[in-house]
Design a protein that fits this description.
2 domains; 30% helix; 4-stranded antiparallel sheet; 3 helices; Immunoglobulin-like; single chain
Length: 173
């Protein structure tokens, strides 16, 4: 016959095996479930920045254009009141960024490489544009109109005295 201690040891081993049979599949399931979000991670990045003038003040309403060099796709937006812009959900790749606004020189960043899940900050300071304008007018002058003014009255007395119709009207009054 079996001793009570042997029976208790046997039950204990069976319980341990039963526990392992539940723990191993549960641990495997937990491992695979936690790995699934890694497959769904984004392949997009973000390009953001602030546009300022030479004195350091922000420029609101500046046009910012992002061009994908591989696909030639263009995205455009204006800076907000804080002079900031943000292109989100941008495909990984090589880009050109152009910033321009009236009264300032346009600035271009021609080699921006964006990786998946990367946030790239591109701040810019615009220089004041020089205002050199030349206006050229081409064409010929119009015809000159001449008028003979020798028979016009010089002052009111001559008008009354030299105008026969007026003299007649004065006598009738």
């Amino acid at each position: 016959m079996m001793d009570c201690r042997e029976l208790t040891g046997l039950e204990s081993r069976q319980r341990r095996r039963g526990g392992l049979l539940i723990f191993v599949p549960l641990a495997a399931l937990l491992f695979f479930v936690s790995a699934v979000p890694a497959l769904g991670q984004s392949t997009f990045g973000t390009i953001l920045g602030t546009v300022k003038d030479p004195s350091g003040d922000v420029i609101a309403g500046a046009m910012v254009m992002l061009t994908n060099k591989g696909t030639s796709a263009v995205r455009t937006l204006a800076t907000d009141q804080a002079g900031s812009y943000s292109f989100v959900n941008v495909d990984a790749g090589s880009y050109e960024l152009t910033v321009e606004t009236s009264g300032f020189q346009k600035i271009q960043f021609t080699t921006l490489d964006l990786q998946a899940r990367e946030t790239k900050r591109v701040d810019s300071t615009l220089k004041v544009a020089s205002q050199n304008q030349t206006v050229m007018v081409e064409g010929t002058a119009g015809a000159v109109v001449t008028t003979d003014v020798s028979n016009l009255a010089v002052n009111q007395s001559n008008f009354y005295s030299n105008n026969p119709a007026r003299r007649t009207n004065r006598r009738q009054q």
